[in-house]
Design goal:
Radius of gyration: 13 Å
Order of helices and strands: HEEHEEEE
Largest sheet: 2 strands, antiparallel
Structural class: alpha+beta
Number of strands: 6
Shape: globular
């Protein structure tokens, strides 16, 4: 039951900050995505990653970095590197 509090808090946190980020939660997995058409959108996604990182730290939860990656679908109009805790996320093919 207490884990639900963590993920519910995360969803509310992202919603509260007014980011047009889509969040999918399932068990202990979190997926975030956003249509990126310009560099501002890329900044919003990075901001969401930072909010997730800060939330995990606040709740003393670890992020499994080996399960984190970036998947780009469609045209690559904005190329950007994304980071969690200073670690660059790998791109999936």
């Amino acid at each position: 039951m207490s884990f639900l509090i963590y993920v519910d808090d995360l969803a509310k946190l992202l919603e509260y900050h007014g980011r047009p980020i889509v969040v999918k939660l399932f068990a202990d997995d979190v997926k975030v995505y956003l249509e990126i058409v310009n560099s501002d959108d890329a900044d919003k996604l990075q901001c969401a990653l930072e909010l997730i990182t800060n939330s995990a730290e606040d709740w003393q939860l670890s992020i499994s970095m080996n399960k984190c990656n970036v998947l780009m679908i469609g045209k690559r109009t904005v190329c950007r590197k994304y980071y969690i805790s200073g670690t660059e996320l790998p791109h999936s093919a």
